[in-house]
């Protein structure tokens, strides 16, 4: 196949295979229909089993996003106060020359005063941290701790199972019992939901554990609406019941686990009554869940847990994931391929990060690491012996921190600093772009090469350009290549083109011809990875007790850690607020696509009828949601989705579309989780009142 024929010639109709770039476990294989150089429609690839020819609503509107009238088409330079959104068009040459000069001056003083900030706007290995990582490594810039999403769960899984590995997602179709724990699959993991439906048709029982009655919870047989941040208590009480009824696999425990006696002692302190109190649910709900799970496992049936990120965005998120991840080893559920647990399989890929990202270009330097989940504090921190130099320059790509990072009042104060030089590579004038000194127009997935791994299934998916760049947009790689040239970086890797980098991602570990021909290729992963133990932990066992955690001064056993902000009745801020994503947005992406925004309506707080009545609030009222960090006004909807004591502020709206020019992250905090130094978005106490 002639790879130089992408994007296809200007005239004629073509179908181009691509990959969905978004931060979603499904990583769909896309087919873009192109007519005379214009992308007409993006479809799901029917030949890719995980995609099954179906895309979510968001990405089936991808052309609406790519050709959006507000798409950035030229580089822009700020000519008004920070945050005013006033810009003038400049040439690429002018922008890049000035940016290179500014970075060079700062780097000459101290390269660690420069901070790259990026996340998963695209999950592509090349447009993500490919050329950008090479550039910042060579520069010696500060490193970024990429903790905003999954770091607590990832660390917890690593401590317990040894890595991000678990059941194959397609095996859920054969399960007899599925626990969907901390996941709104219909919204955020649609292709997994197909397997749940298959299992359900085959007679499986489906149980959802989620404080919110989501569209997923509604379609399950049972919904357990626990209080946010209490999953570890629930999991320990389940262990209590498994022990009490002897629904255990003693052979598996003896052969393949570490710390059983200590865990048993801990779990026996967690009676269902005690956990029910903590979780705000009934003893019967706990006993019945334990019976379903314990009896299924004891009978050798397939009991599968889909553990997702909802539970780990609170103080004890790592402990919660550890507690749940112990369950399949206690019951021997790991023995069968359609049984066990899946959180992420992203650990299976043989990605050649050393070649892609070139950490060797650091040349022995060890720059400090700045935590992206506390970017507000980092931008406002003065130089000090512990912090290092003040951040003088920020280069943002693939992320919209002003909207998505916690405690956005503080984030905005940081971005407002007049002495901070900010460059934002973007598709749109996002909330973050409004604070940039330069905004550089970036290509979308339809316009560049890339290659993708995923955290849901176990294939590699190739993305090839379907159309030429819109306007003067340039790929992230092109920008960092140009900046490298202007800074005189002459290592050959800075001249690699995107296709060369796509090939470097896996070298010969994935047959590139197959990728080119089909658009995807599978990685060999064992069915039932822990059927015979073989956990990639230091002990080779499933580590109920973790010596590594104990050495780090933490509890070696999983335990329940109350939220930082417990939100008890009578407290100044007595309501717990969670802010899970709206179904038709992807974090803050797609909020500006009108057809999708119209489905979501407006920024919204869901509230239980009792909490509303106590405050004289009626559905449709405008309410003020507030705590010590800030205040946010939006419409309220009183419905069954919210449990008593918990409000749901669906995210992540663009601040500039909010009633007061802000969003729900005005209220969330920068405090970090027990493991992984991750964000605690769902550990947030608020008060709500009717707004005037
Ligand atoms: N449509 C859509 N899809 C997405 C995204 C999106 O924004 N929109 N985001 C993508 C990204 S970046 C990610 S990380 C994933 C996230 O997807 P998930 O891993 O599913 O995580 P969340 O959506 O954060 O939360 C999932 C569910 O957990 C619930 N939850 C909140 N707190 C708790 C708790 O303490 N315990 C329990 N048991 N449940 C709790 C929430 O109510 C929510 O329904 O989805 C991806 N897919
Ligand atoms: N309150 C609350 N806040 C949350 C969450 C929550 O559940 N509640 N979820 C958190 C989670 S899980 C996550 S992962 C983070 C996500 O935070 P982000 O990773 O920042 O995700 P997005 O908001 O989708 O912003 C991605 C941006 O990247 C841009 N982009 C996409 N592709 C490209 C490209 O090729 N080049 C360039 N230059 N730009 C590109 C998009 O236009 C978009 O503006 O948000 C977190 N924030
Ligand atoms: S966002 Fe997820 S479900 Fe939607 S197309 Fe992309 S990978 Fe598929
Ligand atoms: Mo995420």
Automatic annotation (TrEMBL):
Keywords: Iron, Iron-sulfur, Metal-binding, Molybdenum, Oxidoreductase. It comes from Rhodoferax lacus. It holds the Pfam family Molybdop_Fe4S4. Its cofactor is Mo-bis(molybdopterin guanine dinucleotide). The lineage of its organism: Bacteria, Pseudomonadati, Pseudomonadota, Betaproteobacteria, Burkholderiales. This is Molybdopterin oxidoreductase. InterPro entries: Asp_de-COase-like_dom_sf, MoPterin_dinucl-bd_dom, Mopterin_OxRdtase, Mopterin_OxRdtase_4Fe-4S_dom, Mopterin_OxRdtase_prok_CS, Prok_Mopterin_Oxidored, YoaE_C. Residues 13-70 form the 4Fe-4S Mo/W bis-MGD-type domain. Belongs to the prokaryotic molybdopterin-containing oxidoreductase family. The keyword Iron applies. GO terms for molecular function: iron-sulfur cluster binding; metal ion binding; molybdopterin cofactor binding; oxidoreductase activity. The keyword Iron-sulfur applies.
